[in-house]
Amino acid sequence: MKKLLMAGAVLVTFITLSGPAFAAGYGGAGCGPGSLVAGTQPGAMQLVGVTTNSTFKYTQLSAITTGFSNCNPQGLVKLDKEREVFAQSNYSSLVREMAVGEGENLNTLAGMYGCSKESHGEFNSMVQENFQHIVQSESTTSNQMLTSIESQMADHSVLSKSCSGVIG
């Protein structure tokens, strides 16, 4: 019975969340490596595609950003909104990771700003050192956080040059 309920919950979630993906011309798995496996045919292969995208999440992120692996950069998430969606979805984790100066989500955010892997440590140190300015209160929103990070990056001697996605 538990398995049947779990399968039903997965199916309902899949159907609910896949509407935007189908509207963009992708199958239920969305774009990325999973779409290359699953194609656009409905059915169980879409679950394999979703699992593939989850397993290769960094490849999925790169695919959305650059438009490879069957992703249209003007599709589900526009390039100029990707950081906003990521920051909003991972806000609590990002705040914790900024406070300690390291973490997977923080490294992903640095990559979304076009920072090379070599400059991720510098990015992490910068957000930790400026944490009080970036997250000023418990009511700071993810967009306010990003605006503060971008301001700090634009003024930073290294990151303003080494991160291609710096705004300002």
* Total beta strand runs: 0
Radius of gyration: 18 Å
Largest sheet: none
Query: What number of structural domains do the residues give?
Result: 2
Shape descriptor: elongated
Q: What share of the residues lie within helices? A: 55-70%
Please give the count of helices. 11
Mean pLDDT rating: 73
Gap from first CA to last CA: 56 Å
Low-confidence stretches: 11-24
Strand content: under 5%
SSE order: HHHHHHHHHHH
Specify the structural class: mainly alpha
Describe the structure.
- It contains eleven helices and no strands.
- The chain has 168 residues and is an all-alpha fold.
- The protein folds into two domains: 2-66, no CATH class; 79-162, no CATH class.
- It is elongated, with a radius of gyration of 18 Å.
- 27% of the residues are buried.
Question: How do the helices and strands line up, and which of them pair or pack?
Answer:
Elements: H1 2-23, H2 33-38, H3 44-55, H4 57-66, H5 79-89, H6 91-100, H7 104-112, H8 120-129, H9 131-134, H10 142-155, H11 159-162
